[in-house]
Amino acid sequence: MDLVQLLYSLSTPVGTALVIAVGGLSLWFLKLFVDHQWKSNTKLPPLPKVPGLPLIGNLLQLKEKKPHKTFTKWAETYGPIYSIRTGSNTLVVLNSNDVVKEAMVTRFPAISTRKLSKAVKVLTSDKSIVAISDYNEFYKTTKRHVLTHLLGPIAQKRCRMHRDALIENTSDQLHAFSKNCPLEAINFRELFQLGLFGLAMKQTLGKDVDSVYVEELRATLSRQEMLECLVLDILVGAIDVDWRDFFPYLNWIPNRNFEKRIEQMDLRRMEVLKSLIQKTKIQSASKEECYLDYLESEGKMLSERQIRMLLWEVIIATSDTPVVATEWAIYELARDSKRQDRLYEEISRVCGSDKITEEKLHQLPYLYAIFQETIRVYSPIPIIPLRYVCEDTELGGYFVPSGSEIAINIYGCNHDKNVWENPEEWNPERFMEDKSETMDLHKSMAFGGGKRVCVGALEAMTISRMAIGRLIQEFEWRVTDDQVNDVDTVGLTSRKLHPMLALIKPRS
In which residues is heme bound (predicted)? Predict the structure, then answer.
């Protein structure tokens, strides 16, 4: 057979399959050889391994989009740290606070680089946001920008009026609904998330926008449509799976449907952001000082696209995490009248007949315990975006080779039976014990830790506690009977599969 015939045969489906099979087997045997060399060159024991299949590893065991629960179950057998195979990739899974803190602090230099799926790479413009960027000068500079203008303690005081307006508007809408539809259940998520979206636009663009015309889409988008385009669609798209993520040596094979879907999602988002920026600049006389102004004046080295991405990061974080935590907390309290009454009594004792304010939050330990227990049971981000091991290192007393990926299973840490008694149970009282540090922000690990701790933790905690406190102070809550066991989650964050529908009654 000459060269032309050989190339033709390999271009056929059968030939392509043969190339893939031979290439996969070659890499598998190469991995076995390299693994043997690693074991020979280190005195540390190798990581426990979850048994899998040749070539595909443990992928079939992860076919459901809830890997955090599968990882936690495996930890009961293989310990707090173990490795699995996702195709040709080695993934090291961390499931306990101790080993996670070691990774985040002690071994941070060796595992600070992000490892992104193809979907997340596109949707973050290749690490152009603080949460996903590598630990480099871009990260340090942009983190300083967002803390200085929006999320740091001093900036949070400047943004206080926007948060107060959010809580007040939410309360007013609930009172109006209760008056007009006293026997109907309310979709709290829909109401609260639109309010949070408005808050995010005020902070980033200086003005809340009800609708915007997007020239490239030839359409005028409503507030709800903007929310879907900038937040909800992205949260679903971020967990979209491209099989080439697991077999990098097959990147030359196109996956057109996936690529088109993610690229269109990115294009729509960027065009909506562009139109929002243009609209608020035209109305500059009626808008307030905002994050956009700050970035354009201080971020001299930032491109137009990077500025849009940094604005979008604040919009999606503000519009999602607080609503996830608040909805789950109200859901649990609406199912448990005794704990709801206990929180109401605490607020009444501290605030009297006055409305709860941010200054009173530190005097409400049970409210704080409810928030902490909620983000422990329903970790807003169950698994921290993957990191890449750039040099041989040690974790949990095991050897972790360069080239591995690290999955920090926050859900697993927060459901570790060695740390938490009855971890599946929602029990705020566990944070009221004498040994508990009442204001320990990272006790539940929900906001990460070390140098990469979540920069929006303070705002999320403040908004959620204020919302929970005010909603319980002014209303009695009860979920409809058909929702008692509705605790499934969906998407990148731990949203309820179905929005909470609750019956509310104003307190006298």
Answer: 454
Pairing status of strand 405-409 against strand 89-94: parallel
- Cα(10)–Cα(14) distance, rounded to whole angstroms? 7
Query: What dihedral do alpha carbons 263, 264, 267, 273 form, nearest 10°?
Result: -120
Contact 308/302 with Cβ under 8 angstroms?
Answer: no
Classify residue 365 as exposed, middle or buried by CB count within 10 Å of its CB (0-12, 13-18, 19+): middle
Distance CA 170, CA 167 (A): 5
Candidates 504, 508, 507; CA nearest to 183 is 504
List, as one string, the DSSP characters of 349-399.
HHHTTSPP-GGGGGG-HHHHHHHHHHHHHT-SSSEEEEEE--S-EEETTEE
Three-state SS for 387? strand
Q: How confident is the model at residue 300 (pLDDT cuts 50, 70, 90)?
A: confident
Residues 6+ apart with CB under 8 A from 106: none
pLDDT tens digit string along 392-419?
A: 999 999 999 999 999 999 999 999 999 8
For the segment 202-259, what is each residue's pLDDT rounded down to a tens digit?
999 999 999 999 999 999 999 999 999 999 999 989 888 899 999 998 899 999 999 9
Choose among 190, 208, 244, 289: nearest CA to 496. Answer: 190
pLDDT averaged over every residue in the chain: 87
Q: Which two tokens stand for residue 193?
A: 């998330």
The C-alpha angle with vertex 101 and arms to 96 and 104, in degrees rounded to 5, equals 125
Is position 290 annotated in a ligand binding site? no
**For residue 126, what are its two tokens?**
């290749």
Which candidate, 199, 263, 198, 257, places its Cα nearest to that of 224? 198
